[in-house]
Design a protein that fits this description.
CATH architecture of the largest domain: 4-Layer Sandwich
CATH class of the largest domain: Alpha Beta
Largest sheet: 6 strands, mixed
Helix content: 10-25%
Number of strands: 30
CATH superfamily of the largest domain: Metallo-dependent phosphatases
Strand order of the largest sheet: 12-13-16-17-19-18
Radius of gyration: 25 Å
Distance between the termini: 72 Å
């Protein structure tokens, strides 16, 4: 109930009997930052407000009016240069929940308490900010997914402490904030709040009330803590849209409730209405949980964004990292492919693996990349993603897999693998043996990373109950055989690779050749 009360108290409301089926209110500039509209605080014209389907702009007085039913979340769409209040957990308070009867009962985790009569005026405060540049950074977490307080603590030790003092303007968790245990929302939020930046959240399949009968009711605990499960906001020159692409229920061919990737009709209508007010020159960044390629009705979404000159999207869910360039083979009809990122996950391989010196599992992902997070720099309509491995320096961008010892006569039969974590089909990776010829271009291969395979086997033998998950074919793995007849002695392997953005990264490894 605490989170819901916070969202209400940050709004200036006066109760009155519900008349008709419309709600109204004012978006105002909160000059003294107290969350309440005072006499000298002006309404703001032209600000978008939504009920998760329709989108309207405020009039000259800052007033908006929208239809509703008895289960509606109203929210203001943050404009560039302004910010909504945040609560003590640094969660933006840009919404008002209208559920007169509250959430359905009978679920393990509580939803929203009855909100009572509709306020006579739902007023959204916005504070003018002086530092909202067009070039800025944002942090993206994929699937922190703790199932216990111990794993909440893993996140604190492995990721959060190194982010204290970040220059990022805000952060986003791309779903699976939890691993089914929704009672951990509060301690997790409290930890993330220590970073001191606003934090937005996407709903994931492990953030649902699994006892719910319908998709709409499965989001009620998420509503309690975070507000609407889909919404949008502007920051700098970018328009961000948070989507709920987890469709819960009994689907065709199934007898039990489960989830699939999909977007409901009201959500599609919201995106359509939202984008109608977004200038063409803005970059549109979609943020969702299930990768776009696995959303059943993604073609409807493609039709809404493919004619825009600048768009990208980012998801989590898979527990591997990858860059995809969606084109006509997937039904995309835009002039240029759509860049979709499947983000590195905080939990990696679901917090499995041997523990380090402070008791945190290494949690290497199934594609051979380490667990971690990404930092995206947005600059106008451009973006650049930095892959950050948890607990490693920023320069740690690849692993090199080669034997410690080889036979000199067999060197040409010995493969070297390079896993360039932030690589893509656009990358070029080269190998050179120091003092032994020039650079040799490596071949991108779709294989399981042997580095991960070997690690998994070692740990399986040591502790079968805590073994890592089966590997997947890595989307950022390169391979080449060593040069022929390496002379007996030690050799330095030098690797140079360009990531998905054309930036160069280097690494080295020593091997020995024997007779």
């Amino acid at each position: 109930m605490k989170a819901l009360l916070t969202s209400v108290l940050l709004l200036s409301v006066s109760l009155a009997p519900l008349v008709g089926h419309s709600a109204t209110g004012i978006v105002f500039e909160d000059l003294n930052k107290n969350g309440t509209r005072d006499a000298n605080e002006p309404g703001m014209a032209g600000v978008a407000v939504s009920n998760q389907k329709e989108v309207v702009q405020t009039d000259a007085e800052g007033r908006w009016t929208l239809p509703h039913d008895e289960d509606t979340i109203f929210f203001v769409i943050k404009p560039q240069g302004y910010a909504p209040p945040v609560d003590e957990a640094q969660l933006p308070q840009f919404f008002y929940i209208h559920k007169p009867a509250g959430s359905p009962k009978g679920t393990r985790y509580a939803g929203v308490e009855p909100t009572g009569a509709l306020p006579e005026s739902i007023d959204f405060p916005l504070v003018k900010v002086t530092d909202e540049p067009e070039k800025f950074q944002a942090i993206f977490f994929g699937d922190p997914q703790p199932r216990s307080q111990d794993q909440v603590d893993y996140i604190a030790h492995d990721v959060l402490t190194e982010l204290v003092g970040t220059d990022a303007k805000f952060g986003v968790t791309l779903g699976d904030i939890m691993f089914d245990n929704l009672s951990l929302f509060e301690p997790s939020n409290a930890n993330i709040a220590l970073l001191g930046i606003p934090w937005y959240n996407v709903i994931g399949n492990h953030d649902l009330n699994f006892e719910a009968e319908t998709d709409g009711d499965s989001d009620e605990t998420f509503h309690r803590y975070f507000g609407p499960q889909y919404y949008s906001f502007d920051y700098g020159a970018v328009h961000f849209i948070v989507l709920d692409d987890v469709d819960w229920g009994i689907h065709a061919g199934r007898t039990k409730k489960t989830y699939k990737g999909g977007l409901g009709p009201d959500q599609i209508e919201f995106v359509k209405n939202d984008l109608a007010l977004v200038p063409e020159e803005k970059l549109v960044c979609l943020m969702l949980h299930i990768p776009l390629m696995d959303v059943g009705n993604r073609a409807e979404l493609y039709r809404l964004i493919e004619k825009r000159p600048y768009s990208m999207s980012i998801s989590g869910h898979t527990h591997w990292h990858g860059h995809f360039y969606i084109d006509e083979t997937d039904g995309w009809k835009g002039d240029e492919p759509h860049h979709h990122i499947v983000n590195v996950t905080v939990s990696g391989s679901w917090w499995k693996g041997q523990k380090n010196e402070v008791g945190v599992p290494h949690a290497m992902m199934r594609d051979g990349a380490p667990n971690g997070y990404s930092i995206i720099t947005f600059d106008g309509a451009k973006h650049t993603l930095d892959f950050k491995a948890a607990g490693h320096p920023a320069e740690y961008q690849m692993t090199i897999n080669a034997p410690d010892e080889i036979q000199s006569a067999n060197s040409a039969k010995t493969p070297v693998y390079v896993n360039l974590f932030n690589g893509s089909e656009k990358s070029v990776v080269k190998l050179k043996v120091k003092d032994r010829g020039g650079w040799v271009e490596m071949k991108k291969v779709a294989e399981a990373d042997p580095y991960y395979v070997a690690m998994r086997q070692r740990e399986l033998e040591a502790n079968p109950k805590a073994s890592l998950n089966e590997p997947v074919k890595s989307g950022h793995l390169w391979k080449v055989n060593l040069p022929a007849d390496l002379k007996v002695g030690s050799h330095l392997l030098m690797i140079e690779g360009t990531d998905a953005y054309g930036r160069s990264h280097t690494a080295q490894r020593i091997i020995r050749a024997v007779k």
